[in-house]
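Hey, resending since the last one bounced:
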Amino acid sequence: MRRVPVAILGATGMVGQRLITLLRSHPWFEVGLLAASERSAGKRYDAACAWHLPGEPFAGVGDRLVHACDPDTLTAAAGSPGLAISALDTGAALEHERAFARAGWGVISNASAHRMDADVPLIVPEINADHLELVGRQGTPGGVVTNPNCTSMPVVLALKPLQDAFGLEAVTVASYQAVSGAGYPGESAWDMIGNVRPHPGNEEIKLAEEPQKILGTLGPDGIVPADFALSARCVRVPVADGHLVAVHVRTRDAVSPDDALACMTAWQPDLGLPSAPRPLLVHRTERDRPSPRFDADTGQGMAVSLGRVEACPVMGLKFFALAHNTVRGAAGAALLNAELWRRARGEGNP
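The structure tokens again:
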């Protein structure tokens, strides 16, 4: 069966590279056009970037031409607007993503540029697939859909079943974030070797505001945010892949650790999409798990690992959650949203 070509915007970066590896064996989609900045446009892909992932360098597309990240250029090359997954940085995403949507492209974005825009859905398909309806309010032939920050991802996936069953009143999160989350070259070795760095950019702002939009409800005037408070502290640690978060939760209705764990592990939305993991939330019983080295690749990097679900004398409940930050938290999240987009438009499997 013919697979659907997907344009990758920002193909030379770490998330773009991860997308190329995921698309290589995807049952619905394949790598289509590659696009990047003007300094890369016109070059072969293997000349435009240095490959930083395991496996075959450039994942079989090293001889492809890199195009300018411009909707007219890509539309002419493709023959018509299509589906694009954006791995652009924030500045480039602000410049290009809405322009692609105006040109008729469906833009599935991993960038933070438009996540909090009132007319742009911030989608985790297991949680809020209905928010995709916001695209119709953008007033463009195409549309922009976003996925959340890589640290928000394990938090919201773990909180959703608790929200539904017991309600949420307040949440605190402390993150231990892998260096791959900073892209390449990312953090200085001087800052990271033998050290942890409690700074990571504006991650705390994203983590403090994105969950309420994701866990909110779609109304006639847009998303009504979930009404719980969230306080975040984010720290970069010398780990390659896998963001670990320590979550403390005050639920509206009291819940025991055993009942909370049973609720979380039983929660399994049936999406029927190729990238959706089963099971979604995986409990590790070992006291020293989940850990990035052993658990980041659970569910081919798309599942969230849980551990140490225990009573908290201050908040009521505490636990650890871990997700692969460049798969479930970035490229894989965008790919899952692309699958949801295609099905929502009635296009189904290729």
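The longest strand covers residues 168-177.

Sorry for the duplicate.
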